[in-house]
Amino acid sequence: MKANLIKTTLPRSALALGAVLVWGLGLNLSTALAGEGSWIRRANMPVAVAVAASCESEGILYVAGGETSFGHPVQTLFAYDPRSDRWTRKADMPTKRGVAVACAVDGIIYVIGGGSGDTYVMTKAVEAYDPKTDTWTVKAAMPIARGDMAACAVNGLIYVIGGVNNPDGYFAVVQCYDPKTDQWTDKEPLPQTSFAAVAQAVNGIIFLFDGNSTFAYDPTTDLWTPKAPITAAAFNSGNSAAGSVDGLVYLFGGREVPSPGCRTKE
Description:
Largest sheet: 4 strands, antiparallel
Oligomer: single chain
Helix content: under 10%
CATH topology of the domain at 20-191: Neuraminidase
């Protein structure tokens, strides 16, 4: 498979923060923590990090790796319990890295790719964390070393989309990891290369937001479909946070990234 790419300057913020905020949507746990439409400050992380990988498993939030300052990746793992508002340090990852991705499948947390944001030299490393035993296991490496990609778990499979590596540049490649077989499979590439995008699954379909572009991926057909672009001129979805409630996808924040229009597939 050809890895579509382009080389350019990669903008990054060097700011690492340990603050945690919760916004009340009037739903579930957030209602007890904050009034509807308001923010409440929660316990700070033990260490200030940026570009960390994070995911939820069985009601606990996990933050893996990241950078304490620009170009200084770490291998820490912290667990946050929203009910007690407490952080706990867990066993360190085997590999130091920022700009990785994390997904949970059947209670196991998989941290994939990443590296140093200073050099953008990335790793193929895949490591699995078992919260019940507080242990890490090395898994089959990703076929292409990359970081700053998007990832999503659907039906027990993890889809890793796009990303970047030096000196190769940006990728349109999509690869799927099966935790049960510990194997990777190539999937249909994106219509354009992708860096710092965000993915969110809704009803078994993966929606990818890349800059102002929107794409939908159906795992059953292995096809990507362009969807309505983000029309807000001032909004760019690079490194956004995303969530889904009642079939709607919400994007929070983000940063300016190179225009996806300059990264069309070769």
